[in-house]
Specification:
Blueprint lengths: L2 H32 L12 H37 L14 H6 L7 H8 L1
Pfam families: zf-dskA_traR (PF01258)
Protein name: General stress protein 16O
GO molecular function, one term: zinc ion binding
Length: 119
């Protein structure tokens, strides 16, 4: 892959990483405010409110985990840029098309290998 293309993808990945880090941090803060010490949290009057609060906290934690996984994938992609392996499929070693990298800059697999893993 050309150096100019690598710079573009690296910039995209850095922007994504910064945005996700901010999102995860905000979600962590929101989940902590609603949890543990009771600060910033009013006691639910009804059991339904308690269930709703618990669901919301579990949902937030699930989103944080998903975004944490995406952050790890972004870090791996940045490492592949540095090592010269960016744009190569981790499974088959083939070239990952630019169209796929434009849509998902941290993609470690070509479409064929990604589809095979999903089955």
């Amino acid at each position: 892959m050309k150096t100019a293309d690598l710079k573009i993808y690296k910039e995209k990945l850095l922007i994504l990483r910064a945005r996700l880090r901010g999102d995860v941090s905000a979600m962590e803060n929101a989940a902590l405010r609603k949890g543990g010490d009771g600060e910033g949290h009013s006691m639910p009057i009804h059991m339904a409110e308690l269930g709703s609060d618990n669901f919301e906290q579990e949902f937030t934690l699930s989103l944080m985990e998903t975004e944490g996984d995406t952050l790890a994938e972004i870090e791996n992609a940045l490492q592949r840029i540095e090592s010269g392996d960016y744009g190569k499929c981790d499974d088959c070693g083939g070239v990952i098309p630019k169209m796929r990298l434009n849509a998902l800059p941290f993609a470690p697999l070509c479409v064929k290998c990604a589809s095979a893993r999903e089955v």
